[in-house]
Design a protein that fits this description.
This protein is of the alpha+beta class and 377 residues long. The protein is 13% helix and 32% strand. The chain has two domains: 29 residues; 338 residues, Jelly Rolls (Sandwich). A ten-stranded mixed β-sheet has the order 2-5-17-7-8-9-10-15-14-16, with no helix packed on it.
């Protein structure tokens, strides 16, 4: 009996030590959580103190001018295409503002987008970007959205490179596509399915099914990646979006990867180093996730940089974040087409508004924001 009481005391003591360890870990700025580092910082409060965090922005500044001062370049802050709005962020947020990005159709092609660009002081081989987004409940379509990229000699002012295969830069943009490129289901409602739009030195061309140019101009536009079970972008509610880029380790290696999560759930990962990498095949400029196709093979990876020159190879790492609400003339035409085909669907043919909040960039997985109630648990 005495021996049993001693065992019970030992079990109780071990349990108390375990609980104490968990509490201490939750209060240590550099602790690691399998849920992501955001789980350690309810409401994202203090998350900038974590050793893996590169950049944060929660748009709680006094003015849009104060926000822009924290970035390298902005477009739209002088004409209300970029503004601060008293729209609280997602549930659990400690703030009461968010970034409002509005594009009006009458402004024309010259004002088709609003942007924030951040050039990081350091360059990284792997980065995670997490943010929250809320599309207006009548939002239609856009052209481009939010990206991480690497540039050898970064310039905060974007330069046109569409239609060309890049040599000194790469990028992966989280966008929305109107249809399911894998052919496993119907198109979704606007804004579309979450997907990647990606540029790198060995990308495929849209001009032939083999991915080779056929002599027409502008042979290279972004290559599309969509998970086999695509996830729709929602309107009228906050969604948590996180993307990851890992660049290749050597000029002759194709071990680069990218992935994205929606509301904390892994939606798509294209990584040759996974135990069971996704299987599919290339059709023109699209990687089709279809393991049963006769051409399907394990994803071979992305060679984000292929310089033999050691100095250039080391310079081309991830060093830029771009936040967009780019609504082009093509986007408006797609809005018109959808509105005419679906007359009962609520869609704005003159304005496209989206709110974004709680940006965190880090060298490890971030995850959704923990609710403030966790502070006292």
């Amino acid at each position: 009996m005495v021996q049993q009481k001693g065992i019970n005391k030992l079990i109780l003591f071990a349990g108390l030590l375990l609980i104490a360890g968990i509490v201490l870990a939750q209060n240590k700025p550099n602790a690691v959580s399998h849920k992501g580092i955001a789980a350690l910082f309810p409401g994202d409060k203090g998350i900038e103190k974590h050793q893996s965090v590169v950049f944060t922005e929660n748009f709680e500044a006094a003015s849009i001018a104060d926000v822009v001062a924290n970035w390298s370049w902005a477009r739209g802050d002088k004409d209300n295409r970029l503004s601060l709005d008293a729209v609280p962020g997602p549930e659990g947020s400690t703030g009461n503002k968010s970034l409002k990005m509005t594009i009006r159709r009458e402004e024309g092609e010259s004002n088709a987008g609003s942007d924030l660009i951040k050039i990081f002081e350091s360059r990284y081989e792997q980065l995670f970007l997490r943010f929250y987004v809320k599309f207006a409940d009548d939002y239609g379509y856009n052209h481009h959205f939010t990206s991480l990229s690497g540039v050898v000699d970064p310039n905060p002012v974007p330069s046109g490179s569409a239609g060309k295969k890049p040599t000194h830069h790469f990028s992966s943009t989280i966008d929305q596509l109107t249809g399911n490129i894998n052919g496993t289901g119907p198109a979704t409602t606007p804004p579309g399915y979450w997907s990647f739009y990606t540029y790198w030195p060995e990308m495929n061309s849209w001009q032939s099914s083999e991915g080779k140019p056929d002599g027409r101009p502008n042979p290279y536009y972004g290559n599309n990646f969509m998970p086999n079970d695509p996830v729709s972008a929602k309107r009228g509610e906050w969604q948590c979006v996180e993307i990851m880029i890992r660049i290749n380790s050597a000029p002759d290696k194709t071990d680069g990867a990218h992935a994205f999560w929606i509301d904390g759930e892994l939606a798509g990962r294209w990584d040759p180093l996974e135990k069971n990498p996704v299987k599919g095949y290339w059709r023109g400029d699209r990687f089709i996730n279809n393991p049963d196709h006769e051409k399907a093979q394990p994803f071979q990876g992305i060679r984000w940089r292929n310089f033999e020159d050691k100095e250039l190879f080391e310079k081309l790492k991830i060093n830029r974040l771009r936040v967009q609400n780019y609504v082009s003339g093509t986007s408006w035409k797609n809005v018109d087409m959808y509105a005419e085909e679906h007359p009962d669907f609520k869609i704005n043919r003159e304005e496209a508004t989206v709110w974004k909040d709680h940006f965190v960039v880090a060298t490890e997985y971030i995850g959704p924001m923990a609710p403030k109630s966790c502070e006292n648990q």
